[in-house]
Design goal:
By secondary structure, this protein is α/β, with parallel strands linked by helices. It contains 13 helices and nine strands. The longest helix has 13 residues. The two termini are 28 Å apart. Keywords: Hydrolase.
């Protein structure tokens, strides 16, 4: 079926909520917003605390709850019966999992795009520590991340910034130059405390929401495919989709393919109990 024909008729909700990854902001979804709106969906992209246009100093964020507060506020403003499809990228996966635990009745489906899909009691840092230290991806990750110590070097880092000269290699090796330029002037440090905080989710709340995973395949060095597969294996979603030829930012490098998958997920019917 042509994606143009899909539109929103078969969707159980006509509203998408997009959650950016670490260092990104709502700005990164500009192509996805445009494409989904063209298909008749209502789309909201949230700036988490200290991200995008949020004026808060990233170094002062001390918890995951504080970081995801704008997303929780969004859910507080929804009508009681309204449901959304929640989409998260990168560290946004941990952030949306936090919201899934708090607002299970307001989320019809959750979509993780090369995202941190954590098990209960796991932190995002735990996840990345699983990578083999000899890998090219690990070496690049070591080089691209710059720790910030707003409370002095004797205390833990307060945030993680990026070496702008390595952004293309690490995140955007398949993305158009104009999107790399947009990212290089728009990306902000990632708050460190939420990355090391262990996520607590339950079967009753988080586990009641239908989860889908979109794997970015060959050229994702930020969350390599082996790491994505490890998450999928330890915390299996309902269905896994593959985005071939994408870097870590499919909303830049493969926007049409990403949109096709998101529209397809919106069409997957509710499971009827026999």
């Amino acid at each position: 079926m042509d994606v143009q024909e899909l539109k929103v008729e078969g969707a159980d909700t006509k509203r998408f909520v997009l959650v950016h990854g670490g260092g990104f902001g709502a700005w990164c979804w500009y192509k996805t917003i445009t494409l989904l709106e063209k298909h008749g969906f209502q789309v909201d992209a949230v700036d988490l605390t200290g991200s995008g246009v949020s004026s808060f100093d990233t170094n002062n964020i001390t918890s995951l709850a504080q970081y995801v507060k704008p997303l929780l506020h969004f859910f507080d403003t929804l009508k009681p019966t309204e449901k959304v499809i929640l989409v998260g990228h990168d560290f946004g996966g941990a952030c949306m999992s936090y919201a899934m635990e708090m607002f299970p009745s307001k989320i019809s489906k959750a979509v993780f795009i090369s995202a941190a899909m954590l098990a209960n009691g796991q932190s995002t840092l735990d996840l990345f520590n699983q990578q083999p230290e000899s890998s090219y991806e690990y070496d690049l990750m070591e080089q691209v991340h710059l720790f910030l110590y707003a409370n002095g070097k004797k205390n833990p880092p307060t945030a993680v910034d990026f070496d702008r000269s390595l952004l293309r290699d690490f995140f955007f090796n398949q993305s158009p130059p104009k999107d790399v330029a947009l990212a290089s002037v728009s990306m902000r440090p990632i708050p460190f405390a939420p990355v090391v905080e262990k996520l607590h989710v339950s079967e009753k709340n988080y586990g009641s929401i239908r989860r889908f995973y979109i794997k970015t395949m060959e050229d994702d060095y930020a969350v390599p495919v082996c790491l994505q597969e490890a998450m999928i294996k330890s915390n299996p979603p309902e269905q896994v989709f593959q985005l071939k030829g994408s870097d870590h930012a499919p909303f830049f490098s493969r926007p049409q393919s990403l949109n096709r998958i998101l529209v397809e997920i919106s069409q997957i019917p509710s499971k009827k109990s026999s």
